[in-house]
Design goal:
With about 500 residues, this protein is α/β, with parallel strands linked by helices. It has 2 domains: about 230 residues, Aldehyde Dehydrogenase, Chain A, domain 1, CATH 3.40.605; about 190 residues, Aldehyde Dehydrogenase, Chain A, domain 2 (3-Layer(aba) Sandwich), CATH 3.40.309.10. Helices cover about 40% and strands about 20% of the residues. The strands form 7 sheets. It has a 7-stranded mixed beta sheet, sandwiched between helices. The chain has a 5-stranded parallel beta sheet with strand order 7-6-5-8-9, with helices on both faces. The chain is globular. The structure holds nicotinamide-adenine-dinucleotide. The site of nicotinamide-adenine-dinucleotide has 29 residues, from helix 8 and helix 9.
Length: about 500
């Protein structure tokens, strides 16, 4: 770790990147929201925030824009998303560098986040010609029954700091081709990348030329602004990504007014390592899934359930990987693990490790690093913790790089341990035994929204539906048929005969 970097260098670099992406500097100078870089922990921008009146105007404009946008043919709407994908391609490196500066991701992961945004644009462009309904057999002669899908309305998008811009793109690209308008409330920890992303979207809008004013709004502020967005009756769907605590607050408020929700909340993801597991591959997959993004992915591997016959060998190899994985400045090419987002995050990690130690957990790593050179930043060596059995600390999500390892004796017990947590997001099994793999994927296997074989739980592709069960919230985004959440369905029955037969043989002759 070089100590020479001053935050002012980073602030100047962030400003230059914002300038290149054409974000007006008035939006991030002299505002009320201090933006810090986790690389040094110091303030790099002061971002303008919006109050509830500005949100009210943005929702009003989005609502008016929706009424026009819904009548533009979907393939034409797809053209706007195609142009946005082009803007993202052109600015990929600049936007990725801002993600590194603001969220602390290493370079390849930051570029990966922008690539994911490009991928969802490509997907949504194709989808804009595939928003199909069904024709269904009817019991009545001379009739036809079908379903049609219509645009839904204004979609509120609330996002978390750890995927500061890709989560918006997942929602926005699909919602736009579905004919919806957007209001985005990003994490208060990552407003610069949100401003940059929205500026790129506005460039696409300008090139497209025929989108109604107010089709997409960005409102920056804290939780109160999110609450206002959630409570506004003009917002038909809220897609909220963040902690389970946030979802627990948001879900009932939306249900209260019968609005739709997509909740993408926390995870406590496990992997089962079986006797036949390919060990080299397993160690690499576990290392990326558990330590990558400094443990700050919703799909981060947090629990490892290892067959007793391979436990010692695997833990031996993993403890070496944990001791040697390069932690440091995420801008440096050799770094694999960047900083935690802030001090609260490190304190939560410390608290969990102290709790694990108090119940006899054997801990490798977990120390704070570079506290002298960078006193306001929070770098930590990832922690591997051996536990004799599951405990409250391993049953909750601590959003930091901690992996709890436990032994199992038979697969039924391992499946029980894997599912015996309140979250249900991502899971994996490492095995070359077909029976074990299929049992893991079966109805009595993993209860998660994502269940993988011989790859880790993190690193989803946009073609599949993404989301999880139980306290992960039940929502699905991205591929497969997730688009249906952004549209409303109508069932239509058409009588092309001159008779009027009633369903179920009902007779009503007047
Ligand atoms: P967070 O819950 O602190 O904040 C997320 C967003 O919700 C922010 O924009 C915040 O301002 C807003 N918010 C908070 N309380 C709110 C309320 N009552 N009403 C309206 N808005 C509110 O989460 P975070 O720390 O930014 O992100 C980390 C968490 O997000 C982890 O738990 C992680 O697992 C989860 N996450 C889940 C997914 C997923 O797809 N399942 C993806 C990324 C992150």
């Amino acid at each position: 770790m070089e100590s020479r970097t001053k935050s002012s260098d980073i602030a100047a670099r962030a400003e230059e990147l914002m300038f290149r992406i054409t974000v007006p500097s008035a939006l991030f100078h002299d505002g009320k929201l201090n933006t810090r870089t986790p690389i040094t922990g110091e303030v790099i921008a002061r971002v303008k925030t919006q109050d509830s009146d500005a949100l009210d105007v943005a929702i009003g404009e989005a609502h008016a824009a929706f009424r026009e946008w819904r009548n533009i043919p979907a393939p034409r709407r797809g053209e706007l998303v195609r142009l946005f994908g082009e803007e993202l391609r052109a600015a990929k490196n600049e936007l990725a560098e801002l993600i590194t500066i603001e969220a602390g991701k290493i370079v390849s992961e930051a570029r990966g986040e922008v690539q994911e945004m490009i991928d969802i644009c490509d997907y949504a462009v194709g989808l804009s010609r595939q928003l199909f309904g069904l024709t269904i057999a009817t019991e009545r002669p001379g009739h036809r029954m079908m379903e049609t899908w219509h645009p839904l309305g204004v979609v509120g998008i609330i996002t978390s700091f750890n995927f500061p811009v890709a989560v918006w793109a997942w929602n926005a690209a699909v919602a736009l081709v579905c004919g919806d308008a957007l209001v985005w409330k990003p994490s208060e920890k990552t407003p610069l990348t949100a401003l940059a992303t929205h500026a790129l979207f506005e460039r696409a809008l300008a090139r497209f030329g025929e989108a109604p004013k107010g089709l997409s709004a960005l409102v920056i502020g804290g939780r109160e602004l999110g609450e206002k967005l959630v409570d506004d009756h003009r917002v038909a769907l809220v897609s909220a990504t963040g902690s389970t605590a946030m979802g627990r607050a948001v879900g009932p408020r939306l249900a209260q007014r019968f609005a739709r929700s997509i909740l993408e909340l926390g995870g406590n993801n496990a992997a089962i390592v079986c006797p036949s597991a390919p060990l080299d591959l397993s160690v690499r997959a576990i290392a990326f899934a558990a330590m990558g993004t400094a443990g700050q992915r919703c799909t981060t591997l947090r629990r490892l359930i290892v067959h007793e016959s391979v436990y010692d060998q695997l833990i031996g190899r993993l403890s070496l990987a944990y001791a040697s994985a390069p932690v440091g400045d995420p801008r440096e090419g050799k770094t694999l693990i960047g900083p935690l987002i802030d001090g609260d995050s490190y304190r939560a990690m410390r608290h969990a490790l102290d709790e694990a130690a108090s119940i006899g957990g054997k801990i490798y790593g977990g120390q704070r690093l570079f506290a002298q050179e960078r006193p306001d930043a929070y770098y930590a060596r990832p922690a591997l913790v051996e536990l004799a059995e599951p405990s409250p600390v391993s049953r909750r999500e601590t959003f930091a790089p901690i992996l709890y390892a436990m032994k199992y004796h038979d697969l039924g017990e391992a499946l029980h341990m894997q599912n015996d947590v309140s979250h249900g997001l991502a899971s994996s099994i490492f095995t070359t035994d077909l029976r074990e793999a299929e049992r893991f994927l079966s109805a009595e296997g993993s209860d998660c929204g994502i269940a993988n074989v011989n790859i880790g739980p993190s690193g989803a592709e946009i073609g599949g539906a993404f989301g999880g069960e139980k306290e992960t919230g039940g929502g699905r985004e991205a591929g497969s048929d997730s688009w249906k959440a952004y549209m409303r369905r109508a069932t239509n029955t058409i009588n092309y005969s001159s008779a009027l037969p009633l369903a179920q043989g009902v007779v009503f002759d007047v």
